Amino acid sequence: xxxxxxxDGVGDGGTGTTGGACEGEVLWAARTASPGLHALxxxxxxxxxxxxxxxxxxxxxxxxALAIPxxxxxxxxxxxxxVQVVVTVDGxxxxxxxxGLPARRWRxxxxxxxxxxxRRPSQVGxxxxxxxxxxxxxxxxxxxxxxxxxxxxxxxxxxxxxxxxAAVVNxxxxxx
Length: 176
Hints:
By secondary structure, this protein is of the alpha+beta class. It contains four helices and ten strands, in the order ββααββββαββββα.
């Protein structure tokens, strides 16, 4: 994966059809990460480690008031610093962080349409998980986003190769 995030297309060669895929089989996947958010999580984690070392080593009074908030920042930021999008025969899953938690899921039958769209943070209210007039957007980098319409609402996520992802989702939708 490069520093700007990368899409790793898997599956049907970009045709957008599911052609005999097994239940749960990955048809397309992409991942994007924010190097800036990973750096922030690392710095916050380093502050926690130093505070713990000083506290446990007896070099200073307990620094729990410093360590606990920085630990929360480190874990929360790490959980929001990357996103993985996976399309299977069952539908679409958008998972956050290194453990893939939390995750949002849409059944194939609930997806009305999908397309690729170029978005900037200024259009959606900034970086991160944003709610705006364009719907919900996961904005980890400016550029190409996979946009789905499900249950009358738009959801977008910034990933490379979003056009291919949209074609796979639309093919899945048409096959359902």
